[in-house]
Design a protein that fits this description.
Strands 2-3-4-1-5 form a 5-stranded parallel sheet, with helices on both faces. It has 5 domains: about 10-235, Rossmann fold (3-Layer(aba) Sandwich), CATH 3.40.50; about 250-305, no CATH class; about 310-390, no CATH class; about 405-550, no CATH class; about 555-595. The radius of gyration is 31 Å and the shape is elongated. The protein is α/β, with parallel strands linked by helices. The chain has 27 helices and 16 strands. Helix content is about 45%, strand content about 15%. InterPro entries: AAA-ATPase-like_dom (IPR018631), P-loop_NTPase (IPR027417), PDDEXK_9 (IPR012547). This is AAA-ATPase-like domain-containing protein.
Length: about 600
Amino acid sequence: MKRLPIGRSDFKSLIEDNMYFVDKSLLIKEVIESGDVLLITRPRRFGKTLSQSMMKYFFDITQNNEHLFKDLKIYKEKKIIEKHLNKHPVIYITFKDLKSNNLKKMHALLTMELSRLYTKHEYVLKVLNKREKAVFNKIMDREALDADYENCIRSLSEYMERYYGKKVIILIDEYDTPIQQAYLHGYYDEIISLIGNLFGMALKDNVYLEKAVLTGITRVSKESIFTGVNNLKVSTVLNELFNDKYGLTKEEVEETLKYYELEYEESEVIDWYNGYNFGGVEIYNPFSIINLVDEKKIRPYWMNTSGNYLVKQLIKQGSAELKDKIEKLINGEEIESTINETMVYGDLNNNLEESVWTLFLFSGYLKWTKNINHDYERYTLKIPNKEVKIFYNKTVVSMLEEERIKFDNMLLNLKVGRIKTFTDQFKDLTMNTLSYFDVSGKEPERFYHGLILGMSVGLKEKYIIKSNRETGLGRADVILIPKDKTDKGIIIEFKKYNRDEDKSLKDSAQNGLKQINEKKYEEEIKSYGINDIIKVSIAFDKKEVEIVSNLDKGIELTPEEKIAKELLKNGVDIEIISKTTNLSIEKIKNIHGQL
């Protein structure tokens, strides 16, 4: 059997070493027949670098690579082979390793990459004049001016066209890596001008250009990178262009698993690694499928690789509304959002939700299921598969761990009646956590919605969690239904202090408890056969918190609890009261302790 290409992205070594290759070579035909400048965006590890490498070896005039393609589908396209196989000068550059936490180092990495590019094509010095040679040598020596670096790809295309007498094909891999790095580490504005000019000069009105193909994760256009590039053709996960050329189709997965004689449950592979929708084609994650074949175990592979940091930060720092939608997604529901194909990283700073969901979609953390409004580009979105869902769950759990939020310990105090201890714990948690936020705005709502999201993930092993919230925490009740029917049910109501309606924060909390009783939230828990229910109302105003519960002395009792209280006063046996009111013996003992 052929070896699996794990960790391989160089097409030539993969073919010459006779490794397993899913034939995507007809991408070359589609590229030739498409626009002059192509931008292809797909999630990481979906074959972008391998495809760029394949095209480099196909077009490169300095090589004879017929042996690499003779067994592939593209070789049957005789006219294409005759006209294009190793017939074009090629500029190939990858930005996938340009990663740095500061501008100075990023600038150094970028100039180093451009220096390597010039050194590789040093032979063109033969056709340059004295002035051109001077700048060329400065770029190789990394001593050039920024203006020279910005113009260097365009200049190199001119020199290569002069040398070969043919227009040039430019291949740029992972073009947006330095842009994302700059956003993450705070030098976004400084790097965007340099990168924008570099690409703009290479692609806009370049008479020496035959064709350009750029790959990346996101389409970034408003930062002037593609301003004026009128011949730009874009392929994203939303449109049909190249829709089956990145990732694996169902037939390709079946063929791969069959070749390696791997017995598997089709439904399990689908649940874990399928779910992507690229321009209407059902796509599997290729990285995960290759690793599944290698290790013969169903587990998360793609989510355990690097590249999750930005998405994690956006979930953690997201608005209350965003956290609500994350909870819905984790629960298997769909959400709706406008998808802005020309997203701007700067919009992420402003919590512009459509930019967050656009990034999640293009990065592979969501899939689109339906275009519900073509005019406004609104789509329904959901988590694509089990592998990605595990990532969301782990991200929420890590958020809780970072804030040292331990729900189990807090709820234990609640369930054994230590309401004062629970209250102190919750207030400490609120004060410590909110101290990191600007509480003059909507940060408290963000924190409380984060708590609800945390409960939905952190407590799901022991509880069925139901939540019913309206935007802004006008109503935010959480119902915890224990899977162990001998345990207690819990209802938590979060109330934001309303200065017009509430006399005080305490009054707001008491109104929340009243709302729990009036709206009979406990009925849903009772339908599961659980009658011992703790009700807690948590009211907040910025950092201030008040908590009341049905465990407090003097608090308003339910009709059943009032009956139990009167019967206790008359000396009726606790077991008889329990049968009469359907309240648990422990609950009646709590009422007795309050007499």
